Amino acid sequence: MAEETKPTTESVQGGDPTKQTTPEVKTEGKPQPGPVPYERFKEINEKAIQMEKELKKLQEAEKKREETAQAEQGKWKELYEKRDAEYKQLKTRQDKIEVAADMGLPLELIDRLKGETLEEIRKDAESMLDFLKPQEGPGLPYRKRHSNPPDVLDLSKMTPEEIRKNQDKIKHQSGLK
């Protein structure tokens, strides 16, 4: 290899001390990539490049996995909210049925009850019952569902003579004609 020196100043002696001669190295063939010989660290550089590629692949795979996990988490959250809404709706319906049964409100009217809590439903049922109560005056009184019909004959209170007289009614009552 041949070295050439080029003076960068007109005179080497007595010139500006910051300006000095610098040797230039000329190589024939391939240029050197840096001050360290490339061939000496070629294997390490290739390993480093390969490791960087693997790191990028792993980071991308981790990112995809996190995105998938977030998407699944969003689905679970959506499913939870849907099931929670269904539960609240069923609980409210059950509360309405319970209040209607306790207060003697016809089951056909439970869909008209309003409120989310048991207390709100109960207040609404009370206000509805105020409108449903029969007014004083002419008309038939409301017959309770659990009472015996008035035309049922009680055999335990009847004498044998009364039983013989009402034999047709007793047969009709028991379903034997």
Q: Mind explaining what this structure looks like?
A:
The chain contains four helices and two strands. By secondary structure, the protein is mostly helical. It has a two-stranded antiparallel ribbon with strand order 1-2.
Topology:
Blueprint (H helix, E strand, L loop, with lengths): L2 E4 L15 E4 L16 H62 L14 H15 L27 H6 L1 H8 L3
Antiparallel strand pairs: 1-2
Helix pairs in contact: 1-2
Distance between the termini: 135 Å
* SSE run: EEHHHH
What's the main sheet like?
Answer: 2 strands, antiparallel
> Quick one: overall form?
rod-shaped
Properties at a glance:
about 180 residues; mainly alpha; two-stranded antiparallel ribbon; rod-shaped
Summarize the structure.
With 177 residues, the chain is mainly alpha-helical.
